[in-house]
Design goal:
Elements: E1 12-21, E2 24-34, E3 37-40, H1 48-63, E4 70-74, H2 78-89, E5 95-97, E6 109-113, E7 122-126, H3 131-134, E8 138-146, H4 150-161, E9 165-175, H5 178-183, E10 190-196, E11 198-202, E12 205-208
Parallel strand pairs: 4-5, 4-8, 8-9, 9-10
Antiparallel strand pairs: 1-2, 2-3, 3-11, 6-7, 11-12
């Protein structure tokens, strides 16, 4: 197997990476993506109600000065973030960008995306009935993690396609730095609660890849 080939077998390792998410510590499992490359995989839906509420509240605090009127989150892991951030901001409505082509999304606005944790190209779908919630409104787009930046860039593009005035991008974790190049000037909009590295083999296990900015 070459380094560029996908890993076969179970990708989880016996290592974790500790991260402090705005005062709430979690140990994130390190997951091998390829034989020479691994990530710390945070599944926010597996971390409990208290963690979700905490992350949403703290992320809302960082986004509140932007005076958002609506929150956008992409399925699947961005949905709980969007709900908790909306709740903490005192907002009722939020918009979900779907990935499954459900019947009511036959004429949806569509944006193709690629993600570091998913194989192949996916599509984000925005129900046209949600366009009035976004058009001309101060909007923040949220997600659990930004790594390659592909998913967040697609969410941002789709919100703007609907006429949203995107004033901020909020994530629980930023991962490594590839997302900066992907987002370009929009990287300045990102607000995160904590940062995690990516990993390479070393010393009988996985070690953080040195940052290169």
């Amino acid at each position: 197997m070459t380094p560029d080939e996908p890993l076969t077998g179970h990708p989880f390792t016996d290592q974790t990476w500790p991260v402090d998410v705005a005062g709430h510590g979690v140990d994130v499992p390190i997951v091998a993506i390829k034989p020479d490359f691994a990530i710390a995989l945070m599944m926010i839906i597996d971390l409990g109600v208290r963690f979700g509420a905490h992350a949403g509240r703290m992320l809302a605090e960082t986004l509140a000065p932007l005076e958002p009127e609506i929150v956008v989150g992409a399925a699947t892991l961005g949905i709980p973030v969007a709900i908790e951030v909306s709740r903490a901001l005192g907002l009722d409505d939020y918009v979900v960008l779907q990935k499954s082509p459900k019947l009511h999304l036959a004429d949806a606005l569509v944006q193709p995306i690629r993600s570091i944790t998913s194989q192949g190209e996916q599509r984000l779908l925005l129900d046209r009935r949600s366009v009035p919630l976004l058009a001309g409104r101060r909007t923040v787009v949220v997600d659990d993690v930004v790594a390659s930046g592909g998913s967040l860039k697609g969410s941002l593009a789709l919100a703007r396609q609907a006429g949203a005035n995107v004033v901020g991008l909020g994530v629980v974790l930023t991962e490594a730095h590839d997302w900066r190049a992907t987002l370009g000037a929009d990287a300045a909009l990102v607000r995160g609660l904590a940062h995690i590295p990516q990993f390479e083999p070393g010393d009988g296990g996985w070690r953080p890849i040195p940052a290169t900015l």
